[in-house]
Amino acid sequence: MATLTRVPLVFSSSKVPAPSSKSLDNKGFRRTAVVLASMADLSTVLVTGAGGRTGQIVYKKLKERSDQYVARGLVRTPESKEKIGGDDDVLVGDIRDASSLIPAIQGIDALIILTSAVPIMKPGFDPTKGGRPEFYFEDGAYPEQVDWIGQKNQIDAAKEAGVKQIVLVGSMGGTNPNNPLNSLGNGNILVWKRKAEQYLADSGVPYTIIRAGGLQDRDGGIRELLVGKDDELLQTETRTIARPDVAEVCIQALKFEEAKFKALDLASKPEGVGTPTKDFKALFSQITTRF
Questions:
Q1: HEC profile for the chain?
Q2: Long-range own/partner contacts, residues 217-220 (CB < 8 A, 24 or more apart)
Q3: Are the C-beta atoms of 247 and 225 separated by less than 8 Å?
Q4: For labeling, which of 63, 67, 174, 223 is most exposed (least CB within 10 Å)?
Q5: Tens digits of residue pLDDT in 62-86
């Protein structure tokens, strides 16, 4: 009969040394340092008027590009904040109250201003009877208070905070004091917008002023964009622009030196005509006017 020999199992008593708490601390510190360094490379951008139709698009685009930007929004009411998601990076403030802007503007690199007074149609208008509708502005929300004082407050606060660039979205038509938009609610809205634009141009802060044509709620990125000056585009058939295209130009203006210290009118060719704009550096290079 074969003899079974028991072979003892020998276990080594040597152990792999556990990492010391100091080693773990160092690794954790390095990881934290890497994250902070990568965040430091991002540009923090505040969008005011982030609850508006164009402001929402700019804010969303910045959020989608989290590898490049830290988005921050400013809205006027808690309801507007909830409408765009209610995130902690959306603050509630009143641009007419300079002190309420400080928390939103502190620590940002760039400011995109999309605030504007909004005319409201008076009730009772019947288009079947002909004539034109009448408009009014709510108390405290006239163009002088919103488009002049409110924007001036933003520019002053940004300059005080050391903001590196301000992008201001206005409207074409400001070269003509008799533009029909000025008669809406007797607000002279383009006059006050123009005054704020001039204030920005004189502020010393690097700026880009975008005077958009008629804003349309259409898809962006599918048209050839046009830039001009002094309302020349209003004399052509290309006087409108999709809101997402305005939003894209706002963000692209932060990337190129060719966009700084410039004012431009912005419109687009009809869809299917021309080539959709992709080279924004070339687009900004077409403009030489500072105001």
A1: CCCCCCCCCCCCCCCCCCCCHHHHHHHHHHHHHHHHHHHHCCEEEEEECCCCHHHHHHHHHHHHCCCCEEEEEEECCHHHHHHCCCCCCEEECCCCCHHHHHHHHCCCCEEEECCCCCCEECCCCCHHHCCCCCEECCCCCCHHHHHHHHHHHHHHHHHHCCCCEEEEEEECCCCCCCCHHHHHHHCCHHHHHHHHHHHHHCCCCCEEEEEECEEECCCCCCCCEEEECCCHHHHCCCCEEEHHHHHHHHHHCCCCHHHCCEEEEEEECCCCCCCCCCCHHHHHHCCCCCC
A2: 217/53, 217/242, 217/243, 218/242, 218/243, 218/244, 218/271, 219/244, 220/244, 220/245, 220/247, 220/248
A3: no
A4: 67
A5: 999 999 999 999 999 999 999 999 9
Closest Cα partner for 113 from 37, 209, 32? Answer: 209
pLDDT bucket at 188, cuts 50 / 70 / 90 = very high
CA dihedral defined by 189, 194, 199, 200, rounded to 10 degrees? 100
Q: Is residue 97 over pLDDT 80?
A: yes
CB 266 within 8 A of CB 220: no
Q: What is the pLDDT of residues 162-185, one digit of tens each?
A: 999 999 999 999 999 999 999 999
Residue 29 has pLDDT above 70, yes or no: no
Q: Whole-angstrom Cα distance, residue 257 to residue 238?
A: 27
For the annotated catalytic residues, the residue numbers are: 171
pLDDT at 12 over 80: no
Q: Cβ(233)–Cβ(269) under 8 Å?
A: no
How many C-beta atoms surround the C-beta of residue 277 within 10 A? 21
